Amino acid sequence: MRYRRLGNSSLQVSELSFGTWLTVAGGIARDQAIRCIHAALDHGITLFDTANEYGAGEAERVLGAALASYPRERYLIATKLFFPVGSEPDRGLSASQVEKQLARSLERLGVDYIDLYQCHRYDHATPLEETMKALHGAVQSGKVRTIGVSEWTADQVESAVQVARANSMTPLTSNQPQYSILWRKPEAQVFAACARNGIGNLAFSPLAHGVLTGKYAPGQPAPPGTRAASEEMNMFMETAGRHYRSDFILGAVERLMPVAADLGLTMPQLALAWVLRRQEISSAIIGASRPEQIADNVRAIGVSLPEAALDLVDEAVGSVVVYE
Q1: Active-site residue among 54, 117, 122, 244?
Q2: Which of 50, 132, 153, 289 gives the lowest tally of CB atoms within 10 Å of its CB?
Q3: Cα 304–308–311 angle (5° rounding)?
Q4: Residues with Cβ < 8 Å from 55, sequence gap 6 or more?
Q5: What is the tens place of the pLDDT at every residue in 276-303?
Q6: In sequence order, which residues have a C-beta less than 8 Å from that of residue 89 and are 6 or more positions away?
Q7: pTM (whole model) above 0.70
């Protein structure tokens, strides 16, 4: 494993981090999820990303249980707030929500502090100054080490930077955008805004919701045991900005297979190496339902893709890429 600095913070994060969105939140059995978390640690992954709303708090509980026997300095926890948790009606980034949800996340995780506390989305109903002040207070209390955002626009990131700077508040450390060979929206403006302000990026869905694993063929049903075959985990493949299971996209992904094969890489390794080639990326967040998937993914670390291969990637998928 290799490590990169997260923005201008003192945090050093593993180039691959482990996400708990669907699998640990209930998509797979609890004991299997814990085995995957332990496998991630065994492979040098130190950053574990979760959120209060994943599985109505279950992802945080399982992650906390899995990490409980390890020294606290061995791992970093990133969690988020914004969306309702389970059937609770409240949501957003108000000061009261920050206080309430932070306390609950700490309890579910079984830790005294969170390394990275993230705003899961932008809250148009709460003044940005109120949110930034509340997050600054959380850092001052020692319950949070650094703060970040997820899926914010470049303008929203810039606004948060200005509010923090003008009021001597804790600055943003990270942004978490969707980013993959098939989804390149952050390249238009977000990466530049983050770079100007010393903010690192944690790329989620670098395998495009599993499509870039090469498991799915156009015109064919999803193989048993895969994410697309699971009613608990496949719904977001159709709601994350693209219809990722469409033959239109799967046909383009098939054209990537010979590119990966010629480089001696698996499809996931190609996709992860492609994301990690960007200096704006501090870490790529992977998910796994089996420990062996993690073992395959970490072999992408240190892979340098030649320019000719990057050109072939663009040629293969250019017609289906989302840029803006």
Answers
A1: 54
A2: 153
A3: 105
A4: 24, 25, 26
A5: 999 999 999 999 999 999 999 999 999 9
A6: none
A7: yes
